[in-house]
Amino acid sequence: MRTSSVKVLSAVVAVLASVLLGFSTATAAPAPTTLYAVPQLAAIPSCDLSSLPGEASDTLDLIHSGGPFPYDQDGTVFQNREGILPDESSGTPCYHEYTVKTPGSPDRGARRLIGGGTTTDPAFVYYTADHYASFCIVDENA
């Protein structure tokens, strides 16, 4: 009788110890997973060069010929502070901005072409009519 009491007492002590010390013979549930929302860039619409103001085509011709440009800021690095355009893949600046003249404007106006890549042969060109609030990617062949 004494042996069975010792076995029962040993079992009770083991269960209490495991509960108090946090040990378990059962399989632990996996830790909860935290999901993070990763911001995605909005798709930038395309626009045909022929649908843009004629001055955009004139500016693009100047870009391809290397200038001369009417404004000192033309050809300078565009820093994409608004974060609307895709991040530059390399560590070197690849965006350059160019003014699209706005007839009747006393200053440079709001219209720009942003070239990605080399200054005279950009791999892609974006147009903004509202000073960087929105863009479209220019299809030069349409």
Q: Please, could you describe this protein's structure?
A:
This protein has helices at residues 2-21, 54-65, and strands at 46-48, 76-77, 95-99, 112-117, 122-128, 136-139. It has a domain at 46-139: Nuclear Transport Factor 2, Chain: A (Roll), CATH 3.10.450. It is built from 2 helices and 6 strands. The relative contact order is 0.17. β4 and β5 form a beta hairpin. The model is unreliable at 36-40 (pLDDT under 50).
Topology:
Blueprint: H1 2-21, E1 46-48, H2 54-65, E2 76-77, E3 95-99, E4 112-117, E5 122-128, E6 136-139
Parallel strand pairs: 1-6
Antiparallel strand pairs: 2-3, 3-4, 4-5, 5-6
EC number: 4.6.1.24
InterPro entries: N1-like, Ribonuclease/ribotoxin
Signal peptide: 1-28
- The CATH topology of the domain at 46-139 is Nuclear Transport Factor 2, Chain: A
Structural class given helices, strands, pairing? alpha+beta
Total number of strands = 6
CATH architecture of the domain at 46-139: Roll
The oligomerization state is single chain
Round the Cα radius of gyration to an integer and report it. Answer: 32 Å
- Uncertain segments are 36-40
* CATH class call of the domain at 46-139: Alpha Beta
How many alpha or pi helices? 2
Fraction of residues in β-strands: 15-25%
Largest sheet: 6 strands, mixed
CATH superfamily name of the domain at 46-139?
Microbial ribonucleases
H/E series: HEHEEEEE
- The level of helicity is 10-25%
The neighbouring-strand order within the major sheet is 1-6-5-4-3-2
Distance between the termini: 98 Å
Mean pLDDT: 79
The best one-word shape is globular
